[in-house]
Each structure stands twice: as C-alpha cells, then as structure tokens.
Amino acid sequence: MELDSVKKDMLIRQGLKLTHLRLLAALDKTGQISAAAAQIAISQPAASRLLAEIERIVGMKFYQRHPHGVTMNAVGLLLGERARWMLRALDDAGRDIAEISSGQRGSVNIGAVTGPAIELVLPVIREARLLYPDHDITIDVDTSDKLAERLLGGSLDFYLGRVLPGLDASAVNMQLVGDEPVSLIVRKGHPLLGRTNPSLQDCLDYDWVMQPPGGLQRYTVDRYLLDHAYHPPNRVVNTNSLMMMLAIVTRTNAIAPVSRAVADFYAGPDGLTGRIETLPVDHKMAVVPYGLVTLRGYELPAASAEIHRMLLKHLDSQQIEPRAE
C-alpha cells in the first residue's frame, strides 16, 4: 500500500512543478526550446535549466537536440501529452470556478462543419436555450482540420466533423454519424429550373461557385465529375465564404454545390424567402462520413456534457445511430 502511495506522487515528491509541466507542453507543441521558452514567457537559459531539472526528476533523458530543434523520445512524448492533459484540467477547473463565482451555470464551446451545424447543432441549441437560459454557448463553424486543431488546443469541448489525415487518431474518439450529401443550388427563376429533368452535363455550361481547391467538399465534387467522365465547369469562382457564395448565386446564374442540409435550409421557408432553389439533378455526390469528435480520455465539463447528451438524443430521434470508431 505504501509503495502504491509513493508511485502515485513520485514525480511531485521528486520536485516536479507546474512550470515544468508548462514547459513540457510547450516543447511538445513547438519542438524548439527557444519557441517553448517564449511561449511561457521565460528566457532560453531558464528553459534549459528547467529541462535539466526535469531530466533529474525522471532519471533519464527525454529529448534529443538537433540543428532544427529537439525531438522527443518515448518518455518525452509521454511527458508532453500528460502535461497537456493536466494543464487542460486546471484550465477547466478555472473555468468552472469563474462560472460559479459569476453566477453562470456553464459555458459550452462546440465546433461543427456547416451542414451538421445547421441540421444537428441548431435544433439542439434552440432546445438548450429554453432548458438552460444561463448557459454561455459558443458555436465555431469551420472546416474539420481547423476544428480538430482547436479541439487539441483546448478551445473546443467537442465538434461535429471529420478526423482527417494528419490528426493523431489515438488522441480522439469519434462517434460516426454518416455521409454529408451534396446538393446543387441556384437562384429562383434560373434557366435550368424551366427544363424537364436537367442533367449534370447541362449544369457544367454555367458558372460554378465552389470551395477553393484543397477543401474536402471541393475534392468531392471534382472527384465525382472525374469518376463519371464529366469535364469540369468552364468557369469557377472560388470562395470559402458561404455568405459570398449565396450572394453570387442569388444575383447570377451561377450554380453552387453545398451540403444538402444547407440547401434545404436556405431553400426552405426559414431561409432566403424563396430566392434559392435546389436543382433537381440526379447525382450521388456526398462528402465522406463525419461524426461527433471528442478528446480521448477527457471528461467533458458538466454543461458541455449535457449539450453532448442532447446531441446524441437528437441523433437518436432522427433515427441516426452514431457508431464508435
């Protein structure tokens, strides 16, 4: 029993301090001693002294210097990961204390790609505002790579999106929701709406407004056209702004591929008052499956856990069964 007790706080007894944890987390993120020192506002010599102290505490080297910075070995990677978790837990404690002292019931930081933000997050937030009027809810709508970066950085509690290549899949859990179908939208009165059964080939003679190359939705559209032997649109306007995309579509004959949830919203009674319509074109374009992504081993704060539970309940009510991945 005494041995277990010593093991549990061995590093603390050896002298590990909060400053050591902050430096480990910064070094793990930057890979450079100078950058890590700057991040926690200390000098490089002070950082070097702290690293020597950490090596003494753990009893072994945990990084290797090279001309471009440092490389963490297995021990260093373990220390860096655990340091991030502990600092995040302290940040969460500070957030909870601030909420208690200010009388707030909780703050929630959610991320989502555009389609799920409208289709899933919006109805849940409407319900949450009635049940928890004092909750401070922030919704970050962006691409999956940006959302994953913010999740790992601690500014998001969870997000609806994808786990893309480059993200350490062992750091997250993902409950798979499903594909994200793509629809083609045009302005009311568009020439193609007057045709019987317009084809995808007919659409390619018009301007298109799309996500710039490199985006997942753009890749989906380009690959679908290529796989089905269609030439690309003759003229393309590239923009990441949904607002700009809608503005161009409502004022020109341009066609825009968007998430079906986005198309249904803006073409519906709550959207742009009949100024947008979905083209009845037969195609099966769909962006790869997305899901509900959380940090592995991380316990959500109470307010965020409740919104997370409401999202799962909403998925169940829509007969969408998220699967663990």
What attributes characterize this protein structure?
two-stranded antiparallel ribbon; elongated; 325 residues; single chain; 8-stranded mixed β-sheet; disordered C terminus; 12 strands; alpha/beta
The share of residues in extended strands comes to 15-25%
- Class by SSE composition: alpha/beta
- Measured distance between first and last alpha carbons: 38 Å
Rg from alpha-carbon coordinates = 25 Å
The ordered H/E elements are HHHHHEEHEHEHEEHEHEHEHEEHE
**Biggest sheet architecture:** 8 strands, mixed
Average residue-wise pLDDT:
88
Unreliably modeled segments: 321-325
Coarse morphology: elongated
Helix content: 40-55%
Number of helices: 13
How would you describe this structure to a colleague?
The chain is α/β, with parallel strands linked by helices and about 325 residues long. The protein is built from 13 helices and 12 strands. Strands 3, 4, 5, 6, 9, 10, 11 and 12 form an 8-stranded mixed beta sheet that branches. The protein has a two-stranded antiparallel ribbon with strand order 1-2. Strands 7-8 form a two-stranded parallel sheet. α10 (about 215-225) links the parallel β7 (about 210) and β8 (about 235-240). α3 (about 20-30) crosses α6 (about 75-100). The radius of gyration is 25 Å and the shape is elongated. The protein starts with a helix and ends with a strand.
SSE diagram, text form:
Elements: H1 2-8, H2 10-14, H3 18-30, H4 33-39, H5 44-58, E1 63-66, E2 69-72, H6 74-102, E3 107-112, H7 114-131, E4 136-141, H8 144-153, E5 158-161, E6 172-187, H9 200-203, E7 208-210, H10 216-227, E8 236-238, H11 242-251, E9 256-259, H12 260-267, E10 276-278, E11 286-295, H13 302-317, E12 323-324
Parallel strand pairs: 3-4, 3-5, 7-8
Antiparallel strand pairs: 1-2, 5-11, 6-9, 6-10, 6-11, 6-12
Helix pairs in contact: 3-4, 3-5, 3-6, 4-5, 7-12, 7-13
